[in-house]
Amino acid sequence: TSASTKTKRMVPLVTSTKMNYEKEAKLKASRLEKLYSTKPPGLESPACRPHFQSVDDSASWEFSDSRFQRMAFHHARKAGGTSIADYLVRVARNYGIEFVQTEFDSAEEPGTADVPTFYVTHLREPVSRSISHFRYQGRWSCRDLINWTPRSSMASISIANTDDGEPDDANDDDDDGTRRMLAAQGDEFAPTLENANPFESWNKTGGLVENDCPKRAFRLGECAIQCYTQWYSGMSCPQWQIPMDVQYKSASTVLFRYNMIIVLEWLSIPEYAEAVERFFGVPGVTKRRGAYCERSSRRADKLFPLVPKNESVERLRDLNELDSKLYGEITNCDGEGYPFPSLDESRFANTTRRVPYERFMDWRSAKKRAKTAKSPAEGDAIMNEFWRAADSGEGIEKTDNTSAGKLKLTTWHPGDKIEYVRTNTRMTAGESKLTTTGESKLTRKKPNGVGKDKRVHSRTNSKEVSKPAGKDHPKFAKEDHVSQVVHLGSEHGGWSFDEKLAGPRPVVYSFGLGVDISWDLAMIEKYNVTLFGFDPTPKSEAYVLARMDEDPIVGEKFLYVKEGLANRTGTAVFTNPADPDHVSMRIDPHGGQGETIEAPVSTLDDLMAKLHHRHIDILKMSVEGAEYDVLEDLVARDRLPFTQLLVEWHWRSPGPGPPGPVPPTPRHRSLLGKLWSKGFEVVESRDDDRKTTMIRKWRKTSRLTAKLTT
């Protein structure tokens, strides 16, 4: 069997004439619906617990130990599939098995292949995926965009109106003319607002139109709603009249029998990316590769930015109800971390010649040159030279991992600082680039005495962070660390933090937003990260949603969570301030204050579990007095998973009091002492010590505390 790396169309539903399409689809629907009703209780999805077991029977939940001879990947459009497919081709070639891919057709159902097959696919949050698909292909046609070349000489022209003394609306025509001039290239197609499809029309199973199933077979290239349900069931042709709930059950059954489902949003988490690479035994899962017309569509969208209205997004969310339910079912994982099994190489049958992943790009280049050679003999000579070099190990740097001298898979470990260079706008790490080669150096040092190795990861902008011995210890600054404090944001809503300790891609949680997110936006601009903002109060929610409408960056980089921070999970009573012009609300009623409302709250651990984070680089808290209950609880449990703590203290009682500064309470001084015993030091204070910036250092005191509490 030849290891195929090209896309191979597979239509598992049909094997005969067109008249059998509907019949076989309904038979498949009946079988999968029955199988859905017999799903074993407690079965975890392959996104949570991937495995190396083979599905040999399409009518049961039984798995076997048959060795895999091929890998089948279903490419869900606009969910990072191009980059993931490129990675999986390297995996398949590395183990010498066949690779096949479906994209426009229905996903291959486990148990229907002639040989044992490893099934893998990927998912992205359905509404985000749908909006990305519209930007990519729905707004303008890809076929038109790839033939469009904007004038490079016009790239520096500003689209903004100029101040020439005319009324504000006098330059509208000139402004539009500038856009046209930027876009146009002669008489060829150029994207404009006039020839763009409106976002409101992107609301059908086939994107802008209903899925009409050409030739009466399932085939779906563009999709706006219920896309996962359609792709993984393959039953959405309207003439077949198969109910959507049956399609949902069929898609769920298919997905739960896959071996691995990669969740695109989770790839931004270094621990998850490392777990996926450990599972496959090949590095590079976050390496970015652009899609077919991505560059052109991005360029067009930059000229004419798309800002979806809230009502349109909510309508799209309602129309994707089944897909959202399916996505939630697949990604609902119990426990913490990513307990994926390590690679078992014996599970692959190695039916063809293997290409070591270190030489994959060399192999691809040789294949390309051989294909364009002047004669078959010259092409064979090119490939023979590649195999000779690969077999002799020329150009492959080997590092002894064990006495057997195996190739070292990667140079990073869970907990080490990883630098991500994000190239897109949402928290989709499949659209990110993981920089490791030639830029990081990992050394192992034995601490004084006995114990596990302490890993010290050296990297630009993050070398000040070290990880102490032990699996779950948080990150600390080195004992001799010298802070470099910077202040970002407005006078009222600004905050200071240690820039030197933040690293290149910090994880930032911001609790208490109010009506000023200037610091949050400054952090997004500085580090190009997705910032997580939390505030359940109505005024703050209205303010953030309005900013999302006004500024596309806020809508795409700022992840708003309508929950408060507390020392318990559930609901809490929030009290309005007595002055209706004030914004801040406090947890639990206080005498002399305004009306009360109930709002959801969660512990820090629960919120981190929902967002799949093990550690927070910068934690900002402005929670109107709740900081004491939260921090006292975290200190008592020795659970402080953050390196920097930016907190606004509210030691003053909520009622009216005497003017002037108020000294801290004994409770406040006691909490500061407990934080110091855990390694936290104040590096800057503002507003009469009400706003403090603290970092955690690895001191002898904190080392002793960690040892006693382990």
Explain what the structure shows.
With 710 residues, this protein is of the alpha/beta class. Helix content is 32%, strand content 15%. It has 21 helices and 23 strands. The strands form seven sheets. A seven-stranded mixed sheet has the order 15-14-13-20-21-23-22. It is globular. Mean pLDDT is 76; it is low at 1-17, 152-187, 396-474, 653-660 and 701-710.
Radius of gyration: 28 Å
Shape: globular
- The rounded distance between the terminal residues' Cα atoms is 54 Å
Tally of helical runs: 21
Give the uncertain stretches in residue-range form: 1-17, 152-187, 396-474, 653-660, 701-710
Strand residue content: 5-15%
Q: What class, by secondary structure content?
A: alpha/beta
Please report the total strand number as a whole number: 23
Strand order of the largest sheet: 15-14-13-20-21-23-22
Largest sheet: 7 strands, mixed
Descriptive keywords:
globular, 32% helix, four-stranded parallel sheet, 15% strand, seven-stranded mixed sheet, 710 residues
Summarize the structure.
This protein has 710 residues and is α/β, with parallel strands linked by helices. Helix content is 32%, strand content 15%.
Write the SSE topology.
Elements: H1 21-37, E1 70-74, H2 81-95, E2 98-102, E3 117-123, H3 126-138, H4 142-145, H5 172-183, H6 227-233, H7 244-256, E4 260-263, H8 270-280, H9 294-303, H10 310-319, H11 321-331, H12 360-371, H13 376-392, E5 419-422, E6 432-435, E7 441-445, E8 454-458, E9 465-466, E10 476-477, E11 485-488, E12 495-498, H14 499-502, E13 508-511, H15 518-527, E14 531-534, H16 538-550, H17 552-557, E15 558-561, E16 564-565, E17 570-575, E18 586-587, E19 596-602, H18 604-611, E20 616-621, H19 627-636, E21 642-648, H20 666-677, E22 680-686, E23 691-696, H21 700-709
Parallel strand pairs: 1-2, 1-3, 3-4, 13-14, 13-20, 14-15, 16-19, 20-21
Antiparallel strand pairs: 5-6, 7-8, 9-10, 11-12, 17-18, 17-19, 21-23, 22-23
